[in-house]
Design goal:
Layout lengths: L7 H22 L6 H14 L3 E5 L2 H11 L7 E4 L6 H8 L3 E4 L22 E5 L10 H10 L3 E5 L7 E2 L2 E2 L6 E5 L13 E5 L2 H11 L3 E3 L2 E2 L10 H32 L5 E2 L7 E2 L5 E5 L2 H10 L29 H9 E4 L7 H10 L1
Parallel strand pairs: 2-3, 2-4, 4-5, 5-8
Antiparallel strand pairs: 1-9, 6-7, 6-13, 8-9, 10-11, 12-14, 14-15
Helix pairs in contact: 1-7, 2-7, 3-4, 3-6, 7-10
The chain binds pyridoxal-5'-phosphate.
Amino acid sequence: MKIDFANLQYQHELYKDEIENAILKVARNCNFIMGNEVQELEKSLEEFTGAKYAISCSNGTDALLLAMMALGIGVGDEVITTPFTFIATAETIAFLGATPVFVDIDEKTYNLDSTKIETKITSKTKAIIPVSLYGQPANMDEIHKIAQKHNLKVIIDGAQSFGSTYKGITDSALGDISTTSFFPAKPLGCYGDGGAVFANDEELANKMKSLRLHGQSKRYHHKYIGMGGRLDTIQAAVLNVKLKYYPKDLLLRQEVAKKYTKALEHKSNLILPYVDEKTTSAWAQYSVRVKNRDELQEKLKLAGIPTAVHYPMPLHLQECFAYLGYKKGDFPISEIVSDEIMSLPMNPYVTDEEIEHIVWKL
Ligand SMILES: Cc1ncc(COP(=O)(O)O)c(C=O)c1O
């Protein structure tokens, strides 16, 4: 048996005619930049997420930049985030000249530990960026409470969690600004790079729209220093098709996760994912913890089972952040989880036979 990790090929086969026609239509119209498909997508994203404003952009990294630029974050500011995430979350803070300030994660959800945030707040702190890791929103009530008390903004990095909810509200509608990524392997992926930012505040939304287009207020008149951050029309066309089927895909991902959990419950060598009762996860990953990870990965590989590690080194120990002065031992939970975490094949189409095969080898 040979198992596919994200199974993008199967998904393409499912929606092939519609997606290929949508791409062909853009090719024939030649509306490659900001064509109608982009506005259509943004409207559908607003309807799906419940966020008042959705603005598509070039990728999930630029989405974070747009969010922070809109909030005026830059040199001299501090932004609190998790060290257990993809580099983009903290890299963008540093890219804008601000300082990433790390706070360790919760041992069960692997998301920012809200009880540890307040001790890191200084007069320079401008925002908190929780990441909805593996698809699950962080403890948003507590994070919002702290943000309100200290007059901070909340940017949710929802690159992995499009369609997840916290107390019934999508995480795209929950931040002062929320972001997402449409990287192909994300729960809702396009056929290249793509992303979006979400806001409920009109002024912030308009500013991000302008920043995405080189800060222009009208053609060749530039109010802000911005960026070339648009989503290609072809990617919007693909997403318009895939978004229609996304509610079904999300349910299938949740089903797959349930099946994994049921089948793995008795395995004493594994720590399984924990989903808080206030949240629903988009299940970007199904990640387990295991002590002998490298050995097990090798064994699974030989059995045709691909695995991945999200992420093997926490950000405070990355070479690029050496200047921040952190050291091993500063964020013990992030460090332990980085050593033990391993993601199993996850997509809406994992079959019962595949799960059986994986469980047998674990
Ligand atoms: C948590 C997180 N933030 C940001 C990003 C960046 O998204 P993109 O690859 O679309 O730039 C990713 C993508 O892997 C991510 O997982």
